[in-house]
Amino acid sequence: QDNRFQAIIAHAKEYGFVFPSSEIYDGLSAVYDYGPWGSELKKNIRDYWWKSMTQLHENIVGVDAAIFMHPTTWKASGHVDNFSDPMIDNKDSNKRYRVDHLIEAHAEKLALEGKKEEEYALLKAMDELIAKDDFTGLKQLIDDHKIVCTVSGTSNWTDIRQFNLMFKTEFGAIASDSPDDNIVYLRPETAQGIFVNFLNVQKTARMKIPFGIAQTGKAFRNEIVARQFIFRMREFEQMEMQFFVRPGTEGDWYKYWKQARLDWHLSLGIPADKYRYHDHVKLAHYAKEACDIEFEFPIGFKEVEGIHSRSDFDLTQHQLYSRKKQQYFDNEIDHATGKPYGNYVPYVIETSIGLDRMFLLILSHAYDEETITKEDGSSDSRVVLKIPPKLAPVKLAILPLLKKDGLPELARQLMDDCKQDFRCFYEEKDAIGKRYRRQDAIGTPFCVTIDHQTKEDGTVTIRERDSMQQRRIKLTDVRQEINRFM
Ligand code: ATP
């Protein structure tokens, strides 16, 4: 499994999907850049999510809030006081670990050695100690299990400390007595930009409860990282939707969104057995119900998305700190009383998915090393990305068989016709087999080859990526044929 993960990372780099950030300076830990095909794939995932939320739900609208927010936002939301993880340093290597990651990695090792019961006991003990914020106990657990640092090989640990995950920076020069007045945070989640705009959006878009606000954008967390490629980054993108409901109806809406979000994943044609729910037992103090949607990544089942029933916590907190009412007037009649429901602070169901994590999900699902038996009985191999066509970076490769006899001109005409509708790729270099392989490697679902027969009868060969089957269709039908899959 680890080999597969390493192969995917190498492939992502070699074929222009994901590069380490500032690589010529040896990269920056847990920060990545998206290349030509990566940026297309990422955009397509974002668009697919955005369309499913806003275009397909009349009662969901979008916002695009700033990354910088008033510092009080993060006091109100609880992030200044609570958004931290317990961490520990190894005295010999100076490597810093999140305590839960360190213990989980050790538990995984136990599992691999077949010590299932020990693994289970360790994880259970950890959960209990974390729930009680018992750092002395956690340190004892690490010592008892003689957990070592993979870099130094020693178990010479510091005490456990809380480490706030928010990045801080300074905001211009403000004349003030306290230097703290200049501090702003890079947002650690996009959700708060939605909450502080709740009334602006509700009033201007004339929304009636129940309604949602969707947003995609960058978020920043100073994660103590185990190396996990784009699974856990310090700068990443979130796609979040906050759904505002009448108090008392949150249970039903939570169920609705829990199912709707899984359905969204399945609509991409990924098998259901790759997914599972993880219902949270330990809830944040404000949460009523919460679950993760987990996917079987090459590194095991891990969270890709969270669905949280957040009660009226966030809006109430902002009401308290801003001293501005965050209420909605509901004029619908409550049949129990015969009167309108009136003023209240709405309850919220949140769906929150990491765009980069979804990208990794698609890549992990799509990556395939295949052995192919050729017509003459010999075998060959290929690496293919079986990306759902809707999300593929390039939809159609247009390949003239030869660089002469008017074939490139015909291919160019097709290119001009199709590129208005979807991303095409023109290539005339190398043998056709080699060109097919390169398209397989970036996940292009269709290739069209223009040959001499095209000049005679106006047909082309269309090759399908996954089955590698080829058939002839009319040149003039190509655009429509590809559009069927978009
Ligand atoms: P984790 O337990 O993995 O740290 P979380 O529970 O803190 O995640 P949330 O705060 O619920 O995550 O964020 C919602 C989503 O944002 C996650 O499901 C994940 O897809 C994504 N996400 C969170 N942190 C990161 C990160 N450091 N890098 C990439 N994506 C992230």
TrEMBL record:
Domain named Aminoacyl-transfer RNA synthetases class-II family profile: which ranges?
A: 166-400
Picking any one GO molecular function of the record gives: glycine-tRNA ligase activity
Q: Which domain of life is it from?
A: Bacteria
What SUPFAM superfamilies does its record include? Class II aaRS ABD-related, Class II aaRS and biotin synthetases
Provide the top EC class.
ligase
PROSITE patterns given for it? AA_TRNA_LIGASE_II (PS50862)
Q: Note the InterPro entries from the entry.
A: aa-tRNA-synt_IIb, aa-tRNA-synth_II, aa-tRNA-synth_II/BPL/LPL, Anticodon-bd, Anticodon-bd_dom_sf, Gly-tRNA_synthase/POLG2, GlyRS-like_core, tRNA-synt_gly
Instruction: Quote the EC number.
Output: 6.1.1.14
Listed A to Z, the keywords are: Aminoacyl-tRNA synthetase, ATP-binding, Cytoplasm, Ligase, Nucleotide-binding, Protein biosynthesis
* One annotated Gene Ontology cellular component of this protein: microvesicle
| A single GO BP | glycyl-tRNA aminoacylation
**What does the sequence similarity comment in the record state about its family?**
Belongs to the class-II aminoacyl-tRNA synthetase family.
Name the chain's protein.
Answer: glycine--tRNA ligase
Organism of origin is Panacibacter microcysteis
